[in-house]
Design a protein that fits this description.
Distance between the termini: 11 Å
Structural class: mainly alpha
Keywords: Hydrolase, Nuclease, Nucleotide-binding, Phosphoprotein, Toxin-antitoxin system
Mean pLDDT: 91
GO cellular component, one term: toxin-antitoxin complex
Family: Belongs to the HepT RNase toxin family.
InterPro entries: HepT-like, HepT-like_sf, HepT_RNase_toxin
Largest sheet: none
Protein name: DUF86 domain-containing protein
Strand content: under 5%
Number of helices: 6
Oligomer: single chain
Low-confidence stretches: none
Length: about 110
């Protein structure tokens, strides 16, 4: 669980970074600001990589989280440089990250 706590810390830290990057930012402003978009992409990559490293035991305890999708997001961003779908990224940020944060805060 100690290793899991490290990965949980990194995931929560990157969620908080994304929240800071996007504080009072609309979708249109997000996609028009290359630095912010790239910073958010990087944070999502880190979240995905950390999620892949969580233990199977922890993933089983938190099976409500679609861990395969969380890790897969990282792969999609890394391997599809030219077709990042920012609408999907925005939807994930708005709808999925708050739920993930809420779950992981219990294990911090």
């Amino acid at each position: 669980m100690d290793k899991d706590k490290t990965y949980i810390f990194h995931i929560l830290d990157e969620i908080e970074n994304i929240e800071k990057f996007l504080n009072n930012v609309s979708f249109e402003s997000f996609i028009d600001d290359l630095k912010t978009a790239k910073a958010v992409e990087r944070s999502l990559e880190i979240i995905g990589e950390a999620a892949k490293n969580l233990s199977d035991k922890f993933k089983k305890e938190t099976e409500i989280v679609p861990w395969r999708d969380v890790g897969g997001l990282r792969d999609k961003i890394i391997h599809h440089y030219f077709d990042v779908d920012y609408k999907t990224v925005w939807d994930i940020i708005q709808n999925d990250l708050p739920k993930l944060k809420e779950i992981l805060l219990k294990y911090k």
